[in-house]
Structure formats: structure tokens, C-alpha cells
Amino acid sequence: MYIWLPILLVISAVFIMGIKFSNKVIYPKTRSHSETYSIETENGKLNKEWFENLPKEEIAIDSPYGYKLYGIFFPVEGLKKTVIICHGITYTLHGSVKYMNMFYKRGYNVLMYDHRNHGRSEGNNTTYGYYEKYDLMAFTDWVLNKCGFDCKVGIHGESLGAAVALQNSAIDPRVTFYVADCPYSDLTAQLSYLLKRDYRLPAFPLLNITGIISRIRAGFSFKQVSPINDLKNVSTPIFFIHGVDDLYILPRMSEDMYKVKNGVKKLYLAPNARHAEAYWNNQEEYDKLVGEFLEQIGM
């Protein structure tokens, strides 16, 4: 009996740590709409007067999984181009506003929305694209019904939003282009990296236990979230962007996906930029390169 006690204690400790890490992964602490609005306005990333005076339509649509999703649509009268902008983890659609004028001034309607379990959208957990990609597809459905089925739809995503967009690229051929800013290439690899970086812990066996617990709780496996695998048969043009100083999601993840992607593609490694800072620290260059990418693909 006493021989097995240390083993049982270790197993119990790993299981408890797995529950705690699962909580961090699938139930991330998210910010409210009012909080993100204040952060973006105070940092100068959201011009309050400009934003509030834009024509807009608040919308709520049904997810394929039975919860409500919240978004805001900014129309440009009579135009048949729309970009959907997807925000990063723990945030809301206010994090997408900084990218908005880059497309708006080029004649695009803009749709921004809150991911499941974020902002004003419903949903009980975060699955890093496993369910979110179908929510994104539902918003594309909404755009095409709103603007006409001849409307061209593009998607810009940041961090989690970029990874969701890339997973969407494998299931929705209606989308014309993607701009993926600082996405992770594989959830298992990303979580393994964060375990080592933040906790100095090896992936095995903690990540395996966490994965089992998360699958029971949220219905998905970490191995099922792998944008780099999803890209292998995708021909839709994709512009990969990543800050060279990003230590949260390493830039090599975008480099690896760029290498795997076939067909039209572009890669920009933004200088002096940590995670999700590529645009804000390189606004003119970022805008110019996105414009060139859109011209290259006839958009």
C-alpha cells in the first residue's frame, strides 16, 4: 500500500493540474465590451467620434450550435465587397477597429463580431477554431444574404481570429482571401510552448491529461485544431503577417504555414512588433502591403 502512495499522489497532482490548465484553456478570462472600448480609445486605436458616427447595424445571428453571436456591420452604399474582421482571445470586436479603415477606405463593407464565449456573444467555452470556424461561416452566410450572393467576401484575423480564419479556409470556398495576423499553426504545439515558457513544465503528461479533460468538457480534441494541416489543400489567397518579436505565438508558426500553403500567398514579418503589434507599429507598411496583396488578387 505504502509503495503505491507516492505514485497515487503524483497521479492526483497531475490530474488536479490538468483541471486547472483546462480551465485556463477553455474558460479564458475575457474582457467586457465597455472595458475593451475604453482600452482602445485610451490607447488611440479607436477614434471615438469617427467610430460612433459611422453608419452601422448591430446584428445578432444564430450559431449552428444554438447560441447567439453578436456583431456590427458597417455598410458602404452599393458596394459588393465585404471584409469580416476576427479579434483575438479574451478580447471583443473593439480590437478589430484598428484594422477597419484599411479596408473601409478601399470600398469594403466591414463586419466585426465577438467570438463565442467572448464579448456579447454567447457560448460556454473557447475551442480555438474547432467550433468558431463554423460561427465564422455563419457570418459569411449573413453577409451573402445581406449584400447578395455576388458579393466578394474576405477575412482578416488577429491571433485566435487568424487561426479561426485559417481553419475556416478549409471548409468555406466562398471566401475570396484571408489576411492572417500572428496565428498559431497548431494548438498542441502552441500549448506545449506556453507550458514550457510560462510554467517550465513538459507537455507530457500534463497536456495529455488536460486534453482528455477538455474533450469531456468542451467536445473537442486539441489535435483537431491544426491550421497548418488544414492549409494543405487550400487554394484561396492568404497573406500571413507576424511580428518578428512575438514571444507569445512564435513567428516561425506563420513561416511554416506560408511554406505549406500552395497557390497565391504572401508573408510579412513585421519589425519592432510583439504579439498583435504588427499593424500598430508599422501602420504605413502594413497598409501598403495589404493594398498590394488585394491588387494582386484583383480585389
How does this model look, in words?
- The chain is an alpha/beta fold and 299 residues long.
- It has two domains: 203 residues, Rossmann fold (3-Layer(aba) Sandwich), CATH 3.40.50.1820; 38 residues, no CATH class.
- It contains eleven helices and eight strands.
- An eight-stranded mixed β-sheet has the order 1-2-4-3-5-6-7-8, sandwiched between helices.
- Strand 3, helix 4 and strand 4 form a beta-alpha-beta unit.
- Helix 1 packs across helix 8.
Secondary-structure blueprint of this entry?
Elements: H1 5-26, H2 33-42, H3 48-53, E1 57-62, E2 68-74, E3 81-86, H4 97-104, E4 109-113, H5 132-147, E5 152-158, H6 160-168, E6 175-181, H7 187-199, H8 206-218, H9 227-230, E7 238-243, H10 252-260, E8 265-270, H11 283-296
Parallel strand pairs: 3-4, 3-5, 5-6, 6-7, 7-8
Antiparallel strand pairs: 1-2, 2-4
Helix pairs in contact: 1-8, 5-6
